[in-house]
Amino acid sequence: MKIEHAALYVRDLEGAKRFFETYFEAKSNQLYHNKKQVFSLTSSALTKGRDWKS
Asked: Which Gene3D superfamilies does the annotation name (predicted)?
């Protein structure tokens, strides 16, 4: 199995971003904040993919 995309809802967006950058060598985009919808988001790309074999 190969995971291509995943989405997470978290309370601490900056903390989650740092976690993935630290432990998975993720490269993150700049934080986006939508004031009308009251949400923030960022996307991160993992530099090293992982194939999950069952």
From this structure: 2,3-Dihydroxybiphenyl 1,2-Dioxygenase, domain 1
